[in-house]
Amino acid sequence: EPEVTQTPSHQVTQMGQEVILRCVPISNHLYFYWYRQILGQKVEFLVSFYNNEISEKSEIFDDQFSVERPDGSNFTLKIRSTKLEDSAMYFCAVRDSLWDTQYFGPGTRLTVL
Amino acid sequence: AQSVSQHNHHVILSEAASLELGCNYSYGGTVNLFWYVQYPGQHLQLLLKYFSGDPLVKGIKGFEAEFIKSKFSFNLRKPSVQWSDTAEYFCAVTLNSGGYQKVTFGTGTKLQVIP
Fold first, then answer.
1. Residue A73: what pLDDT?
2. Does the beta-carbon distance from A45 to B36 stay under 8 Å?
């Protein structure tokens, strides 16, 4: 199973601040995803990223969100101006193209005050 | 758009009891089906998956699931649960149609196993 690490494990920020969440896949992967899970709710798809561009995004992924893979390794999710409702666990996932399965990182808990 | 429903939100069992967690999906085409587990304080881990072939799939830790196409179901089973199975279980689906295949999750079932 591919390993995925995420940093930080917990981020506390003030409303209106920018945050960057990082994902580091251990192996080489082509497909990357971000999901979020608001406390007590289900895991929701945010965005998929392939070949250095967004391939699909949900209605949650508005202009406040952006993703990039700046150095060919880290895969980042940026929230430009955080809102209270952005408080959630954010999971990065990579897709094993051979077995068509997504593997998830440990998540970053984002708390917006 | 595809959707996944899990019937039980919270299940409490004694050790050695049998487990069955329900999962139904709605989508007219071909899907890939998954069960993920999230142990307390840990990340989502793949328990088992079904793409094609034998509709009864076996996963890790003694879990199995059966795909019944006519019922759009993919129920998770384990003959005898252990305290260490206490976790939240998520049924999930991706479309088997190529593309970038986002995962659509069910709402999850919290399983509590009492020693």
1. 78
2. no
